[in-house]
């Protein structure tokens, strides 16, 4: 049904409202308590016409439930000085999504820009499709990760909207809620309805369905939304009980960690591994004399410093992701980059086993939190590729999780580049024999012994499995906007210069 055809026919008498509310509140609190132990979050999104009671419903849910376990988020229009304008638009929503076991209530969120832009006729058809794809992608990622997403379009016809705004305006206690923008939007009511129909039709999916709520009667809309929330949580909790309990044990030193069901969920599509051996063509015999290395190091670091000062002036930020075999020299390469930079403008993020807080979110959540801004640089010593490397090989992620991760990672990096962030990715490659030599050297050198762990030796036993995972990773995520650089690292001097020169080349091209 089109919003223009919506008829207000729902009303709840005060006596019935008061009779139903006590049991409903008790059940909501019970469901909320059960949810706290569950492995999924709940995302409630409220959209619709002004005056339909979105804020009032959010306030009531905070009153009826335990507000300690609710997350309320509303978003205003960003200013030019807001750091979020220099990051992907969805960064703030990724930052604010609730962890597993919690409920997030979102107002003026990821639908606001496309809705208001369409009403103001600033959004062209191509732009509309881009907005829609970004919304569907965001909701799909979180739904696939287990989130329960409920979206409510709260609706009023034009006559009821005017009456509601007049009622609020006439009451001194609520008059502040009505602004000039509300009346301007009322004057463009037909555009709002048309845009609402388009948005609902384009983003009403099985994973994140819309529900249109009659907003004319405050009792009806409040009870209806609360009952729908209760039913959805109870159904999801019942579904969760039928599944096998997750295994949560995994090596403490692993790069990433994710609960693994006893019976892995089958992949939706048959995974086709890469038949291209990206690592076989790397010339690992390259060497560089120490004298030549020092000369080239100074030249490359000088050029890198010049380019990053230029990037800082243009407010072009950068993200560098370092992956590679254990003992391949990632740390040494990163240190040579840092020597060329101002420490006020960079951050190094060592990606270790996720914390309890990080495990309670989508695996990309912790990387969204570290996006640079204002021409700064963030360097990841191991990165989001742990999902398709260590989590895949060690079984910390189900096959369906790591197989869909290639697409999710490509979309993540695409959003970064589209927002003006340069993305560089490096795989440091060495032979198995060279790795063994370095392991043995670390074992006998006191100041290097701490670097070698039992996990390193275990990973080495799975060299072939990791090599297959690396080839798939490069094959499926080597995109024009974020290409892989495979670094020959048997010789450390060669590797460091290779990395420095690659960063300079990529930054130079990005600034053109």
UniProtKB/TrEMBL annotation:
GO MF: kinase activity; polyphosphate:AMP phosphotransferase activity
One of the Pfam families matching this protein, by short name: PPK2
Residue span, Polyphosphate kinase-2-related domain: 12-238, 288-507
UniProt-annotated stretches for the region Disordered: 237-271
Keyword Transferase: yes
InterPro entries from the UniProt entry: P-loop_NTPase, PolyP_AMP_Tfrase, PPK2-related
Ranges of biased composition (kind: Low complexity): 245-260
Keywords: Kinase, Transferase
Record keyword Metal-binding present: no
GO process annotations (BP): polyphosphate metabolic process
Domain of life: Bacteria
Protein name, entry field: Thymidylate kinase
């Amino acid at each position: 049904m089109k919003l223009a055809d919506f008829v207000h026919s729902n009303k709840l008498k005060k006596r019935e409202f008061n009779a139903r509310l006590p049991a409903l509140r008790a059940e909501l609190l019970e469901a909320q308590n059960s949810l706290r132990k569950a492995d999924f979050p709940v995302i409630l999104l409220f959209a619709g016409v002004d005056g339909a009671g979105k804020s009032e419903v959010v306030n009531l849910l905070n009153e009826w439930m335990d507000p300690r376990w609710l997350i309320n988020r509303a978003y205003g229009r960003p200013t030019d000085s807001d750091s979020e304008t220099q990051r992907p638009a969805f960064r703030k929503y990724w930052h604010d999504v609730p962890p597993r076991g919690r409920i997030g209530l979102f107002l003026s969120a990821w639908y606001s820009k496309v809705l208001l832009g369409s009403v103001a006729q600033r959004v062209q058809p191509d732009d509309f499709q881009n907005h829609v794809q970004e919304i569907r992608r965001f909701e799909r990622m979180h739904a696939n990760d287990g989130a329960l997403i409920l979206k409510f379009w709260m609706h009023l016809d034009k006559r009821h909207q005017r009456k509601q705004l007049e009622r609020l305006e006439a009451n001194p206690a609520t008059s502040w809620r009505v602004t000039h923008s509300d009346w301007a939007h009322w004057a463009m009511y037909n555009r709002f309805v048309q845009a609402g129909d388009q948005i609902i039709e384009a983003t009403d999916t099985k994973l994140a369905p819309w529900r249109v709520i009659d907003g004319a009667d405050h009792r009806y809309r409040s009870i209806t939304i609360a009952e729908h929330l209760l039913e959805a949580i109870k159904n999801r909790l019942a579904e969760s009980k039928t599944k096998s309990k997750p295994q949560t044990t995994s090596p403490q030193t692993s790069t990433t960690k994710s609960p693994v069901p006893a019976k892995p969920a089958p992949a939706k599509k048959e995974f086709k591994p890469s038949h291209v051996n990206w690592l076989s063509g790397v010339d690992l015999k390259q060497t560089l004399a120490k004298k030549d290395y020092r000369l080239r190091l100074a030249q490359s670091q000088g050029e890198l410093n010049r380019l990053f000062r230029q990037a800082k002036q243009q407010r072009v930020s950068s993200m560098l992701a370092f992956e590679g075999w254990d003992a391949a020299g990632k740390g040494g390469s990163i240190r040579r980059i840092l020597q060329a930079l101002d420490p006020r403008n960079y951050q190094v993020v060592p990606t270790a086993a996720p914390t309890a807080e990080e495990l309670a979110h989508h695996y990309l959540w912790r990387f969204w939190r570290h996006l640079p801004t204002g021409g700064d640089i963030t360097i990841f010593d191991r990165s989001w590729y742990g999902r398709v490397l260590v989590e895949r090989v060690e079984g910390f992620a189900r096959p369906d999780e790591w197989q869909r991760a290639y697409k999710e990672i490509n979309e993540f990096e695409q959003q970064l580049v589209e927002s003006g962030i340069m993305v560089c990715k490096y795989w440091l490659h060495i032979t198995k024999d060279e790795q063994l030599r370095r392991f043995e050297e670390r074992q006998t050198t006191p100041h290097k012994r701490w670097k070698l762990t039992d996990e390193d030796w275990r990973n080495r036993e799975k060299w072939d499995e990791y090599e297959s995972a690396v080839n798939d990773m490069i094959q499926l995520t080597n995109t024009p906007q974020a290409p892989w650089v495979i670094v020959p690292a048997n010789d450390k001097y060669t590797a460091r210069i290779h990395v420095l020169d690659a960063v300079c080349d990529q930054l130079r091209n990005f600034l053109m």
